[in-house]
């Protein structure tokens, strides 16, 4: 099985925390030029997929910035591919209107991922989101009315202005009232080049302290489990049967093709990355992929990094350096932060998932 990811490099405005590749200034002509390049990239590179396509993910940027004519065109790439069982589009709540709902109803899209981030208006304003909490709730309701049965919502914890109580409010409202099938909850990270990073450097915001972050994470684990979500990846929670198949394929080393500027691809052995440059992408008619060759040790380390983020963990018995990895893991197994099942499957205990980054560097070969 294989997946296809399509990166739409447009956003109507830039959120203060975001370092994803996207353009805030665009017009219809630029989007049309992008679509020509995208169609050509698909035409030239679809042969790279040698297995049936099972998942498609239109992400970005903000795919819901595109006209429905362009979104229809993207869907038409997959007309002949009847093996697709999960077809996701990312949307901004502010873009949910009759036009987009009609497109979704008539398209092969069967999963919608919505960036909600918080259900507290002051927090949303601070991070530059275009919508308020009420709009996000109405957008999910409208998607339900349109028959979408698989909705994922994103939340962020550790935001400036956020308190334990306001995080609890957002999370409770999400799980009790909005009730999506899938929830992604990320710890805010201050990425270089973002507005929040600049504000923090100038001392213009109060960063959440470690104790608060741990309390928020503990509550997230407890409340999501109580609400019936399975914590199946470090930042992802799903009701039974609603794990993200597309994202899960990243964690299980399934090949995927990434289209659009900044998108990444994986053929099972090597990775490739499209240069994040829209102008170059358009000029080269979508052909700006650069292959990245990994050494065997780099591949092992990458698998450790990805596999340890999941509930099932990593089957270390498949590695030549099994003994070395197991030896490095022993102190963490002894203190309960790592779990080794059947002498094969190594995973991080849920209460230590916030420490994953520091644990895994000690396991690298
Ligand atoms: S968070 Fe989403 S909507 Fe905001 S700038 Fe980033 S890609 Fe665009």
Précis, in short:
This protein has 365 residues and is α/β, with parallel strands linked by helices. It has 13 helices and 15 strands.
Structure write-up:
This protein is an alpha/beta fold and 365 residues long. The protein has helices at residues 28-45, 68-76, 98-106, 121-126, 133-145, 164-178, 195-201, 210-226, 245-251, 278-283, 296-307, 322-334, 356-363; strands at residues 2-8, 53-60, 86-91, 111-117, 151-157, 182-187, 230-233, 236-238, 256-259, 264-266, 271-274, 289-292, 314-315, 338-341, 345-348. It has 2 domains: 2-250, TIM Barrel (Alpha-Beta Barrel); 296-365, Orthogonal Bundle (Arc Repressor Mutant, subunit A), CATH 1.10.10. The chain contains 13 helices and 15 strands. The strands form 3 sheets. A 9-stranded mixed β-sheet has the order 7-8-6-5-4-3-2-1-9, with helices on both faces. Strands 10-11-12 form a 3-stranded antiparallel β-sheet, with no helix packed on it. Strands 13-15-14 form a 3-stranded antiparallel β-sheet. It starts with a strand and ends with a helix. The model has no long low-confidence stretch (mean pLDDT 96).
N-to-C terminal Cα separation, in Å?
A: 29 Å
- For the record, the CATH architecture of the largest domain stands as Alpha-Beta Barrel
**What is the radius of gyration?**
21 Å
| Number of E-state strands | 15
Structure ligands: iron/sulfur cluster
Report the top-level CATH class of the largest domain: Alpha Beta
Our estimate of the beta-strand percent is: 15-25%
What number is the mean pLDDT?
96
**Whole-number tally of structural domains:** 2
